[in-house]
Specification:
Helix 23 packs across helix 27. The longest helix has 26 residues. It is flat, with a radius of gyration of 35 Å. By secondary structure, the chain is of the alpha+beta class. The strands form five sheets. Strands 1, 2, 3, 9, 10, 11 and 12 form a seven-stranded mixed β-sheet that branches. A four-stranded antiparallel β-sheet has the order 15-17-18-16, sandwiched between helices. The protein has a three-stranded antiparallel β-sheet with strand order 4-8-7.
């Protein structure tokens, strides 16, 4: 068993792409090795801004032997009177076997070939080349006069099977044993010598011990030319796959991204505590910083206390979003005039580095202070007129028009949802929610939309509910973001997002494939999550229709647009349910009723049915309900149940059970208690089975047949009261 190492060395890759690329590299390595039948124990991926690496451990030296079978013609065609026909001989020749070795099984002939496994080392050049050229990126680039594209120029390749170099070449770069250390850090000659000496002393049997630590320049055998390359490019030799991580670490590259991330986290936490506070660490920022450095060292900087008079977000946003700094706060959550950043280097000259970072941040905060003071010269409401200069969508007016439309839309939604909300505050929040888009602060720091609207509304003396609603209507802003907690923020947020979706669809710009320039899928998911979290029950068709009407969409287009938009949102609901672990067949069962456009109701049904299908009662109910549903398909004319046409006691028994359950089901549905609905449906299983045992539903007497079908229709209303149980796979 050996280790397979493949390192792709590049110019610095954008940090936000690295996690996805490493996951892709891992998946490709595993897939391609499986396809080539190369046995291995596991695949690890490692990465820094300048390299993507995978290491496969426990790789066998040869493929396992295999047996391949090819199916040929039937035995009757292949042999006549025990002798092979031309068909058999042609098949054997084509498969490269002797006709005598053909095997007859299941009345067909088979060519069975036993193949010896190939040496893995012979397969690896093609494997690594395939992996390298199969990687895909959001943005590609070409360099020099090469046709091959990659996310950044490739500068070196390391491909080792144990200690053997595997030949791979792309754009003139050939694989070898030589990687690159940190761009700026390197060991002194004395440190290198001492490390090499210690290694040789600990490994006296290995004459190549010196090479395991030192770069090619230190080895006299490589001569002066190699020394020059070493000095210029910080080339380091990787003696074998096992030595990869330690060799890079010796050269100031911490290649394990998981360990590096946790080291950064701990450094930031410890430094913040030492500075008298604690760090606010956002995982996405930590992930980004992790892929900006190869040798992390945290350091603390400061800024003038006068900037603490600004709203907290005005200080944190330039720090976090623009400079990639971690804010430091007190126990009560208030901000300290300190920040923590992470340098790509050692502990030398940290004061100088901190001073440089402080100068950059000072300029950002000075801008924020200026814009804040300028914005405060006029109240938020006075900016409504300026919204006329901001276009909403082509042909659909400006943001002032949208603000006035939102006032009407929130009135409609408040009525439809029945939410308890102060009407005046709701309409005020809808009117002002877009005003901060034309403030200097938001124009400069776009991440602060909603945040500055809230802060300015508070300073203007607007009601607290209005200020909070202005901020919350943008939520959720991204996957995993918090949801609005107040009814004003919820209703304005739903109205705003549905208005964006309806407006874009009305222009014929529905998302296609991976293209979604207006982020409508995210907004639809936001609507769904808000509705579910708030427990709002209303008709999506009515809401969408009302918003399209307020957008002045011609009535002749509504018949096509409304179902299109509702289907788009329902597809997001389907994906959300499956992502939450709801079985796909349960989702299909619940969404089968196209008349149900109440998102909160559909969610409650899915949750209840998903839990029910795990129970012992589920198989019998599903079987009985499916049989009932199949017979109900034969109903040609709807008729009322006539008890006088019952001919057998089981008919009356089933009818009585249906009547008894119906009242309980009506009450349960009114409370959205679908577990109770399913419990009532289970009570019908025994009378349903008895009914089918004693009664021929499709009786010769038309009246009797129709009466029995009418009874089964009433049964179906209960058994399928949560969803179409015939969709469930047991």
């Amino acid at each position: 068993m050996e280790k397979l190492l493949f390192e792709i060395g590049t110019e610095e890759i954008p940090a936000n792409h690295m996690s996805g690329l490493l996951n892709q590299l891992k998946g490709l390595a595993e897939k391609k090795m499986d396809e080539l039948r190369i046995p291995y124990a596991e695949v690890r991926v490692l990465g820094t801004p300048r390299r993507m690496t995978f290491i496969a451990s426990g790789v066998a030296e040869a493929q396992p032997d295999s047996t391949v079978e090819a199916k040929g013609p039937s035995a009757q065609i292949a042999f006549k009177n025990g002798e092979p026909t031309k068909a058999a001989m042609g098949f054997a020749r084509g498969q490269g076997v002797d006709v005598k070795d053909l095997v007859i099984r299941d009345n067909y002939i088979y060519a069975v070939k036993h193949l010896a496994g190939q040496k893995v080392e012979d397969l690896l050049p093609g494997l690594l080349d395939d992996i390298l050229k199969s990687l895909t990126f959001p943005n590609n680039m070409r360099w020099a006069d090469h046709d091959f594209k990659f996310i950044r120029p490739i500068r070196w390749l390391v491909a080792l099977f144990g200690s053997k170099v595997i030949p791979v070449e792309v754009n003139g770069v050939k694989s070898g044993k030589f990687s690159r250390g940190h761009r700026f850090l390197r060991r002194s000659a004395k440190e290198t010598f001492e490390a090499a000496k210690e290694h040789v002393e600990n490994s006296p049997s290995l004459l190549s011990g010196l090479k395991d630590i030192v770069s090619g320049a230190v080895s006299k055998a490589k001569g002066v030319a190699m020394s020059a390359i070493e000095e210029t490019y910080n080339v380091i030799e990787i003696p074998n796959a096992d030595a990869y991580e330690k060799t890079l670490e010796f050269n100031f590259v911490m290649v394990d991204q998981v360990a590096r991330k946790e080291l950064i986290r701990q450094q930031v936490i410890d430094l913040a505590i030492a500075e008298g506070g604690h760090a606010e660490i956002k995982e996405d920022l930590l992930e980004e910083v992790n892929f900006l450095v190869e040798w992390p060292t945290a350091l603390c900087g400061k800024f003038e206390e006068k900037y603490l008079a600004l709203p907290k977000e005005c200080v944190i946003t330039p720090m976090r979003e623009h400079q990639r700094y971690f804010p430091v706060v007190k126990e009560d959550g208030s901000l300290l005039n300190k920040f923590i950043t992470v340098r790509n280097g050692g502990k030398e000259f940290l004061e100088t580095v901190a001073h440089g970072n402080e100068r950059v941040l000072r300029a950002r905060l000075a801008d924020a202070e200026f814009f804040f003071k300028e914005d405060r010269k006029a109240p938020l409401a006075d900016r409504l007129e300026k919204l006329k200069t901001v276009s909403f969508q082509e042909g659909l007016g400006n943001m002032n028009d949208k603000s006035n439309r939102l006032v009407k839309e929130v009135k409609m939604l408040a009525f439809e949802t029945g939410a308890r909300v102060d009407a005046e505050n709701l309409e005020r929040a809808a009117l002002l929610c877009k005003c901060d888009l034309v403030t200097g602060m938001v124009v400069e720091f776009t991440e602060l939309q909603g945040v500055m609207g809230r802060e300015y509304a508070k300073l203007d003396g607007e009601a607290a509910e209005v200020a909070t609603g202005i901020f919350e209507h943008y939520l959720p802003r991204f996957a995993g973001d918090i949801l609005p907690q107040g009814n004003i923020g919820r209703i304005v947020g739903i109205a705003d997002k549905l208005d964006n979706i309806a407006a874009t669809f009305s222009r014929g710009l529905a998302p296609t494939g991976s293209q979604d320039p207006y982020a409508l899928r995210r907004q639809a998911l936001g609507v769904i999550n808000i509705i579910i979290d708030a427990g709002y029950h209303f008709s999506l068709v009515k809401a969408v229709g009302g918003i399209l009407y307020m957008l002045n969409v011609p009535s002749e287009k509504l018949g096509k647009l409304i179902p299109q938009i509702v289907e788009f949102i329902n597809l997001r609901l389907k994906n959300l349910l499956i992502d939450q672990g709801i079985r796909y067949d349960v989702v299909d069962a619940v969404l089968a009723d196209k008349r149900n456009d109440d998102i909160a109701d559909l969610y409650a049904r899915a949750m209840a049915l998903n839990e029910f299908v795990k129970s012992a009662e589920a198989p019998e109910l599903i079987q009985a309900a499916t049989r009932v549903a199949n017979l109900c398909k034969k109903i040609e004319t709807e008729t009322a149940i006539n008890v006088n046409l019952f001919q057998k006691p089981v008919e009356k028994d089933l009818h009585d059970a249906v009547v008894a359950s119906s009242n309980a089901v009506i009450l349960a549905v009114a409370k959205y208690d679908y577990a109770a609905v399913l419990a009532e449906a289970v009570k019908l299983v025994a009378p349903i089975n008895s009914f089918f045992e004693d009664v021929m539903v499709m009786d010769k007497d038309e009246n009797v047949k129709n009466n029995r079908l009418a009874l089964l229709s009433a049964v179906k209303d209960i058994t399928h009261g949560v969803g179409d149980l015939s969709c469930i796979v047991m």
